[in-house]
Design goal:
It comes from Nocardia pseudobrasiliensis. This protein has one domain: Orthogonal Bundle (Arc Repressor Mutant, subunit A), CATH 1.10.10. About 50% of the residues lie in helices and about 15% in strands. It contains five helices and four strands. Strands 1-3-4-2 form a four-stranded antiparallel β-sheet.
């Protein structure tokens, strides 16, 4: 992502209810888990396996509007970035706890 023409779209971090509502969906939780484990922005297509692109777009929009992720368009590719610092500033420890539980559940499968 070294392109000089980069577009970033993000929203303020929502209330705890808004963030938890966005994370309660298993698809969105898996997207956040993958982003957290990657530790860097990921191409949106790598965040889902079993859903179609339009459904994935809806889920990514929900996460973005809750302030959990941001969309980055660079070099004609769309990436998602987990806004860990921003969410932690507003709701300390939430992402660590939720992603940790999701990782333990995933490893148990």
């Amino acid at each position: 992502m070294t392109d000089t023409h980069v577009i970033v779209e993000s929203f303020p971090v929502g209330s705890v209810q808004t963030v938890l509502s966005a994370l309660q969906d298993p698809v969105r939780l898996e997207m956040v888990r993958r982003l957290s484990n990657a530790g860097e922005p990921m191409r949106c297509g790598l965040l889902y396996d079993t859903i179609n692109k339009s459904t994935a777009t809806h889920h990514l929009k929900t996460l973005r509007e809750a302030g959990i992720t941001e969309r980055i368009v660079a070099d004609g590719h769309t990436y998602a970035r987990l806004r860990t610092e921003e969410v932690d500033r507003e709701i300390p420890g939430l992402l660590d706890a939720i992603v940790g539980a999701a990782n333990r559940a995933h490893d148990g499968d």
